[in-house]
């Protein structure tokens, strides 16, 4: 509430206060005036004006009278009325009696004046009425005229519009491309060009040119019809010829059929290879590359490699028919994107997403099967698939062995398709898609990881992509051809299968507590080994991680999820040595890693006991001497055998507490130069072959 | 060096350069690595500065002992002693100045050298090892001039008592022997395991750590770590440390000891264990205090791991150097 607002209100109040007295005053004035005029009228004696027209019509009289005159008359009679009144008053004041002649006379005169005034009043009224009528009449006339004017204006406007429309009119002929004027003059015949008319008249010229155009078009239409007819004729003849060629096919087939026995007899699988190449034409490019390379490699270097194509050929044909489909999947993905955009507005249902996922993970109907035969008769079957929408290749594996492997429980993992080819090259686990573009495709349909679909679709190993000639920018290696991978990969594959089969056999005997030592490796170990392998079991990665004595291995990052884990237990007397083994899928290239824990007179492990640590390094570090004949498939069993020897040494050289009576639990049988050496008092774990004694490293 | 080899590596010996800016460490594969302390301790140190500036294979067997003289690094391998020039090593020239081998009697196995010490009085090197004897190498002439015989098992550790010109040695036989360096004769012999206060028959009787300071001696191993008064030849205090100790050192009014177990033990002279500071290797072999340079005054310990822990402050591990 400011003082300003208050002032405003005050000023308003003041104004209204100021206003009212004025108004009152004005009204008061008006009243006084009315009273004055009345007084004057009353106080005036009327002046009588005789009117002696026999047929009386006041209206006619009205025309003859002058209003000015009437006004003067009115003034006169008012004045005389006033003088008469004052004379009467004077007389009365002088004491004249009621009804005396003078007063009576004056009263008569004033009555006459009143009559006169009345008459004037009437005339004034009549005049007013007439004036009104006249005004009304005039006004009506003006209205009519105004209406007329408006109509005329509208007409003008309409006409103007029409004119401008006409001016704006575009003729069709302006769009037609006419031949130029010179050309027209030269080519058009006289009867059309009419030079005498058109020379100076552009309108006629245009008309003539249009005529010429029409003429020409008519001619061309005629020509088109003729060509159409000849074309049809030629097509018909082609049809006839085709029919003829088709009729030849059965005959040729019959000839082929008849020649089959001859082919077989001459051992030329002519038709079979022909069929295969025929089918191969429908393979997607990566599989085709692989097919050609594998075939070439098989023929040149490896007779035990066999390539075949399986799958629905008709479906593949159908796929490759519409050119825009097989041409590029860029347009496909674009369309998908658009679909996705529109879809995002609507709530997507799970079913739709599922369909989309299935569509995205669809594989080509044709697949390639590579059979790799090993020397011992076992076969590695590789099934290669191509995922069309993801543009990657996957592989599934199967091993069939010549002899029925006796079931070793711990070997279950070894020949599983899931892990058989894991890490064929370093850290190639084949669980994630190698194509970085797939990441975005997955995001769209809500696939979190390709690993969930590996079971169903096969593994997208990097080497598979390389074999198919697919290269993705993420892989660091320089772009190389499929052919350059073929030999090394095939060798690795064969090596992998052989090592797995060798391990399989070894596991079978390990589970029966027999450590198979081949004659070539006999010299690595003393003749008498007392410690026995008591148990050989497989453990899971999780179980391995929970062991207390493998911390240093996990800290060094040497226990990966892709590795296989085993537990060996070696026993002698009351001593029990646990060995947790990490077996890399790339065995024997990467040697198994042992971690030890001995329970004998308390618990000790390789982390706390220097001697157990030395035993670990004896098997883990000095593994080269344990490899045996190439390619070193006996490494694992030799390591376990050495572990038994080391345990013997460990137990036999353990210092005897003199205070305890009785014979030693483990009498010393091994020949040692010294039982301890060096600042950390290590035991002699190294076996010297011909002499048969143990020494220190 | 692969990851498995690193996993099974042990550091046995360390020695600081005379300038105090470098640390040499020897491992079980016969390699010596040179670390730059000035780089590792500088404020802008990266992971790379904790790696050796130079690694070379010095011997065939493990390097159990390293020793620095004024300008040389002496390393002991399988039955041989090599000398390397510090200035050349810093320039990354790896060539031994000389390699000497004591006259061993047995030929079947080359005895290892477990410990070395310098006798600065006559500039000689005393070497003790696997053949139960101490060999004295005259550094002036480069010949082995004396053999101290007396131990019945191999010698674990050798140390020098400067003021009395006495050599002390401890061995697997459980005896601490004191030798007169001038006459090369055994003066005293203490069988530590026979003293009830230190004996630990469940471990054994060997003496694996030995160090002296004027009239005081620390020894331990199979028996507990104990402080001895040398004039009276009697134990004054025994330290209740659980494992076997490998190396101990006097530091101001404290004793630092390392051995089995992942910690450095701080002991008071009275016999109390004041603190056990954790470190990364599971058991420790060597402990070294850098007194050569004031700005790089650190304690380094190494053991059954490829890491060497560095303590800038005695009460916690600052970082680890690694092979």
Automatic annotation (TrEMBL), chain A:
<comment type="similarity">
    <text>Belongs to the THOC5 family.</text>
</comment>
<keyword id="KW-0539">Nucleus</keyword>
<dbReference type="GO" id="GO:0000445">
    <property type="term" value="C:THO complex part of transcription export complex"/>
</dbReference>
<feature type="region of interest" description="Disordered">
    <location>
        <begin position="1"/>
        <end position="43"/>
    </location>
</feature>
<dbReference type="GO" id="GO:0003729">
    <property type="term" value="F:mRNA binding"/>
</dbReference>
<protein>
    <submittedName>
        <fullName>THO complex 5</fullName>
    </submittedName>
</protein>
<dbReference type="GO" id="GO:0006406">
    <property type="term" value="P:mRNA export from nucleus"/>
</dbReference>
<feature type="compositionally biased region" description="Acidic residues">
    <location>
        <begin position="325"/>
        <end position="339"/>
    </location>
</feature>
<feature type="region of interest" description="Disordered">
    <location>
        <begin position="317"/>
        <end position="357"/>
    </location>
</feature>
<dbReference type="InterPro" id="IPR019163">
    <property type="entry name" value="THO_Thoc5"/>
</dbReference>
<dbReference type="Pfam" id="PF09766">
    <property type="entry name" value="FmiP_Thoc5"/>
</dbReference>
From TrEMBL, chain B:
<dbReference type="InterPro" id="IPR015943">
    <property type="entry name" value="WD40/YVTN_repeat-like_dom_sf"/>
</dbReference>
<dbReference type="Pfam" id="PF00400">
    <property type="entry name" value="WD40"/>
</dbReference>
<dbReference type="GO" id="GO:0000347">
    <property type="term" value="C:THO complex"/>
</dbReference>
<feature type="repeat" description="WD">
    <location>
        <begin position="148"/>
        <end position="189"/>
    </location>
</feature>
<dbReference type="InterPro" id="IPR036322">
    <property type="entry name" value="WD40_repeat_dom_sf"/>
</dbReference>
<keyword id="KW-0677">Repeat</keyword>
<dbReference type="InterPro" id="IPR001680">
    <property type="entry name" value="WD40_rpt"/>
</dbReference>
<dbReference type="InterPro" id="IPR019775">
    <property type="entry name" value="WD40_repeat_CS"/>
</dbReference>
<dbReference type="InterPro" id="IPR042626">
    <property type="entry name" value="THOC6"/>
</dbReference>
<protein>
    <submittedName>
        <fullName>THO complex 6</fullName>
    </submittedName>
</protein>
<dbReference type="GO" id="GO:0006406">
    <property type="term" value="P:mRNA export from nucleus"/>
</dbReference>
<dbReference type="GO" id="GO:0000346">
    <property type="term" value="C:transcription export complex"/>
</dbReference>
<comment type="similarity">
    <text>Belongs to the WD repeat THOC6 family.</text>
</comment>
<keyword id="KW-0853">WD repeat</keyword>
